Amino acid sequence: MRNTTDKKKTAYLMVQGTMSNAGKSLIVAGLCRVFSQDGYKVCPFKSQNMALNSYVTDDNLEMGRAQVMQAEAAGIKPSVYMNPILLKPTGDMKSQVIVNGKVLADLSAKDYYAKKTEFIPDIENALNVLSKEYEIIVIEGAGSPAEINLKDNDIVNMGMAKIADAPVILAGDIDRGGVFAQIYGTVMLLEDDEKARIKGIVINKFRGDKTILDPGIEQIETMLNIPVCGVLPYIDISLDDEDSLAERLASNKKGDIDIAVVRLPHISNFTDFNVFDEFEGVGVRYVKEAHEFGDPDLVIIPGSKNTIADLGDIRDKGLDKAISAYAAQHKPVIGICGGYQMLGNTISDPDGVEGGGSAEGLKLLPIDTCLTTEKKREPVNGRFADLCGMFAELSELDYSGYEIHMGISKVTDDKASEFTDSGSGYCLDNVYGTYVHGIFDEDGVADVIVRALYKAKGLAYNRETISRRNFKESQYDKLADMIRSHMDMEYIYKIMGIENKNE
To answer: What angle do CA 418, 267, 402 make, to 5 degrees?
Structure first.
């Protein structure tokens, strides 16, 4: 593997983890924010991302949401070069392989593993493009570099570090226990040249008195001859971390308002609903079984990477009956993308996009959907139609977001009225559906919905309107403050070979 980048212009740092969900995404975001605050032009990079949360750039290309979040932390626009390979699992041990923002093929894990080194030129090209614009590139690994069954032809952990010739900091998750075993075992399973790349260790998600941890830190530093350059505390933060769904699924947050999101097996873009977590008094929970349904104030059916299969799962779990009975009481239901398709009469797959066949929908909206081989990818700016029903105050409000789907939905009854622009969504009574992801993020949209839900319960919502943009900026600053306080940034600058402009 050859590094073709101009290292005179660009400094690199790579964050790897002892396991998935060790906190790599947020550490990278925090470092991007710190470097940006310190006066550097910085961007994130992840050669290969496996996630169902994706985003459409201004040039109609698809990339992982985690790198979008990290780009926001850096104060820059996201670019597909920051995530040249995106794998979106479709079920049956297959993934949709997206290279440079465009769908290449659906491949089995075995077939992709056999082909992945063919994408090294794409990775090198992306890194080269970014290196011409940015002074620092912070690279995120995936999973663990010690997955010895996957080490041959690796392009995302140590293989990626070699391509960029990047120093590595290794993050371990103490919250799940055994952090010193994680760190020691990871390092000892590496080749000597790979061990030499690890310049620092970070212990992440620590709760408690650090002095209790110090003896272990001293021992692991002696055993591995690698310094521990940070002990990061567990932080309560609301950002689009790609691994955050696991924690969200376990949330039992209660509030005046109860929003139930259907937990689909192939759920995608669950980041659409993060904005509701920011409202005091609003609880968002994910429901998988009919007995979990309860009596929510709003039901949301999210996007799906396998709509027909997930619709079958809803039926198997009895959630279809629960949702239909709920809607029959004129209570609000919102479907986003695949969830919008499920609200309709039929979904057909004549070209085998999801394996073929057809399915009857929930019949809450008069639309028929046909899945197509061509994927629609585009950012959108629009305006809500003149609406009726519970969310009538959304009428004529602006929204922004993006469409990313393989399907065309057509309305079959003029009883339905337009919800979002250009035929992208329809509504009937209190059932609303749209193809637009991110639609709740525009300032004012979620606020209208929350206030309407309070009003329906005879309650008043007297809190300040939340600016999504300002809230996210505050979260990035909070993350950066934590990094500065608990990581040795002077040492980080030293291993990168550049100076701290603030000194």
So the answer is: 45
Q: Please provide residue 171's backbone torsions phi and psi, each rounded to the nearest 5 degrees.
A: -105, 130
Residues 227 and 118 in one domain: yes
Same domain, residue pair 209 and 286: no
User: Which tokens go with 90?
Assistant: 């479709």
Mean pLDDT of 70-88: 97
Mean pLDDT of 379-391: 94
Model pLDDT for residues 91-139, shown as the tens digit of each residue: 778 899 999 999 999 999 899 988 999 999 999 999 999 999 999 999 9
Residues 223 and 75 in one domain: yes
The predicted model scores a pTM of 0.91
Residues 459-475: pLDDT tens digits? 988 877 778 888 899 99
Q: Are residues 135 and 262 in the same domain?
A: no
Does 305 map to a domain? yes
Active-site choice (43, 229, 337, 427)? 337
Cα angle vertex 33, ends 28, 37, to 5°? 150
pLDDT at 1 exceeding the cut of 50: no
With a CB cutoff of 8 Å and minimum separation 6, the contacts of 309 are: 91, 265, 266, 354, 355
Q: Is 266 a catalytic residue?
A: no
pLDDT on residue 4: 45
Task: Output the CA angle 135-137-140, nearest 5 degrees.
Answer: 170
Annotated catalytic residue within 32, 43, 266, 437: 437
pLDDT range class, residue 250, cuts 50, 70, 90: low
Q: What is the domain-level CATH number for residue 209? A: 3.40.50.300
Report yes or no on 435 lying in a domain. Answer: yes
For the segment 411-428, the average pLDDT, to the nearest whole number, is: 94
233-268: b or e for each residue (b if 16 or more CB lie within 10 Å)? eebebebbbbbbbeebeeeeeeebbbbbbbbbebbb
Phi, psi angle pair for 52, to nearest 5°: -95, 0
* Site of tokens 């192939």: 266
318 and 288, same structural domain? yes
427 tagged catalytic = no
Whether 336 has a pLDDT exceeding 80, the answer reads yes
- Whether 184 and 277 map to the same domain: the answer is no
Match 């659409």 to its residue by tokens: 272
CA-nearest of 482, 494, 500 to 26 is 482
Residues of the domain holding 122: 11-239+474-495
Q: What is the number of domains present in the chain?
A: 2
